[in-house]
Amino acid sequence: MASKVFFGILLLVCISSSYVDGSKILMLCPAPSRSHHILCKGVTDTLVDNGHDVTLISAFATNTKKYTDISIPALIESQEKNGPGFHTVNMSQIEMIQLINRWQPMIIDIFYNSPEVKNLLNDKSQKFDLVIFEYFMNEVLIGFGVHYKCPVIALSSVSLMSWLATMTGNPLTIATVPNIFTTYTTNMSLMERVYNTLIAIVQEVMGKLVLAPLQKEKYEMYMPEESKMVPYKDLKKQISMVVVNSHPSVGIARPLLPNTIEIGGYHIAEPAPLPEDLKKVIESAKHGVIYFSMGSNLKSSEMDINMRKSILKALSTFKETVLWKFEEDLPDRPKNVIIRKWMPQSSILAHPNVKLFISHGGLLSCLEATYFGVPLLAIPIFGDQYHNAKTMYEKEQGIMLTFDSITEASLTSSIKETITNPKYTQNAKKYKEIFHDRPMKPRDLLAYYVNHVIRTNGAKYLSPPSLPRCSQLLLDVAVVILTPLVLVMLLFVFVCRKLCCRSKSKQVNKGKKNK
Predict the structure, then answer these.
(1) What are the residues facing 156 on neighbouring strands?
(2) CA–CA dist 103, 80 (Å, integer)
């Protein structure tokens, strides 16, 4: 009996040693996007459930007592005035990057100039054990870790961006990993690899010549003097870990260092029961349900009126009931189309009567479609949505339809193909099983590594040495190897030319003597 008690106590000690009780964590989420806020809130909820004291600074108020919630509404106004929308649908990859480069400095200025952030930085009594920030070309936020003398974790809300990969020592592997602003997948043709390389070079140059000087300026402008003991050029070394909202079942397989952890799907909680009115609609739909939502940022009501008419005509040809997240009244909608300003997406997708999800191809929508095993018809608008949609299409989990190509005929054909061809449902179920077949749930994995970074004071052993870009690409090694070879070749050419010249000279002299 005594031995059982002893082993029971030992087990409790081992379990408790893997947790860090009551650590103070600062979560920074300045992106004025609902979908980004959902991800940040998912991290915050996970940490609170694991006993941490969390302060979340974001654009949106959550009105909770579970953690300290600081909202900056001015950030939302910036999104409405300058953010992406249906008007950005025809942007090239370079134009997208330029838009983000123009928009991000505005967000940083609004964030740091808010009274809430100023008060926090000036409050000498505030202490934090860890800073987590959502990375989106805003490495100036790493300065909070320097200010509070604590480790920093970067949250990537999209697949690992090249800037963040470079900062943390991860290989880019341009040959097999497409840039997230392209429509390419891992199986790229020669010309696609050429273009992917050019995009990588452009991003690298823009990062050095545009982004870095701007971030340095903001860092020196906004961070308190006592927080600048780390120069901007060494700021990236303060990142202890990157947690990425991705998973190979939804994205692509790529090499990652031990300091980079994929936690895709961590924001998806157990679906809440459906509201009674929606439950009745879904369960009474004899031919199944098509769920249509363009995400939390885009408003379907802002579509061109002719586009809207084409969509409604296409939807009217189906027997399935259509649930469309639409922000205004639609008096001319067909009987099988039901609209709501807001829809409980996870609860809807979890219902077995849902046959198809029409989406903008946002990463959260793709993750949720995979999580619940629902085929996807993706209509990408901006950013990584094209890449996400093409990846789902290549895996035959659904179909991709460009926004400009939407007509009554094209939409009808795409919907019909997705719901009648069994391969899409079969593959959706296949990747659902893969998505769930993990050694740990993504929330548990997130909680473990956060605790581990705190316990080890930064887990620096997981990160490689920081090297200049030329050293990472082995350009310095190439110079060392090639320089002697080039010198030998030049010497060989020089000797050959001398011998040839001497031979010709002898022949000329011999000819003169014969005369």
Answers:
(1) 135, 244
(2) 11
Domains of the chain: 21-266+441-464 (3.40.50.2000), 276-436 (3.40.50.2000)
pLDDT digits (tens, 9 = 90+) for 383-420: 889 899 999 999 999 999 998 899 999 999 999 999 99
Does the pLDDT at position 448 exceed 90? yes
What mean pLDDT comes out for the span 235-249?
94
| CA-based end-to-end distance of the chain | 121
- Residue whose token pair is 């990472």: 472
Model confidence at 51: pLDDT above 80: yes
Rounded to 5 degrees, what are φ and ψ at 242? Answer: -120, 130
Residue 58 phi, psi (nearest 5): -150, 180
339 vs 327: CA distance, rounded Å:
8
Q: Is 418 exposed, middle or buried (0-12, 13-18, 19+ CB in 10 A)?
A: buried
Phi/psi-derived region of residue 161, left when phi > 0, alpha when psi is between -120 and 50, beta in every other case: beta
pLDDT of residue 505: 62
> CA 418, CA 203: separation in Å to the nearest integer?
36
CA distance 247 to 243: 11
Could you read off the pLDDT of 255-293 as tens digits, one per residue? Answer: 999 999 999 999 998 899 999 999 999 999 999 999 999
Tell me how far CA of residue 106 lies from CA of 314, 321, 448, in angstroms. 40, 43, 35
Query: What pairing do the DSSP bridges indicate for beta strands 337-340 and 239-244?
Result: unpaired
The residues, any chain, with a CB within 8 Å of residue 403's CB and separated by 6 or more, are: 86, 89, 379, 380, 381
Number of helical (H) and strand (E) elements in the chain, helices listed first: 19, 13
- 52, HSE (Cβ side, Cα atoms, 13 Å): 27
The amino acid that residue 347 corresponds to is S
Is the CB of residue 148 less than 8 Å from the CB of residue 456? Answer: no
Report the percentage of the chain scoring pLDDT > 70. Answer: 90
pLDDT digits (tens, 9 = 90+) for 186-200: 889 999 999 999 988
Q: What one-character-per-residue DSSP string does 379-395 give?
A: ---STTHHHHHHHHHHT
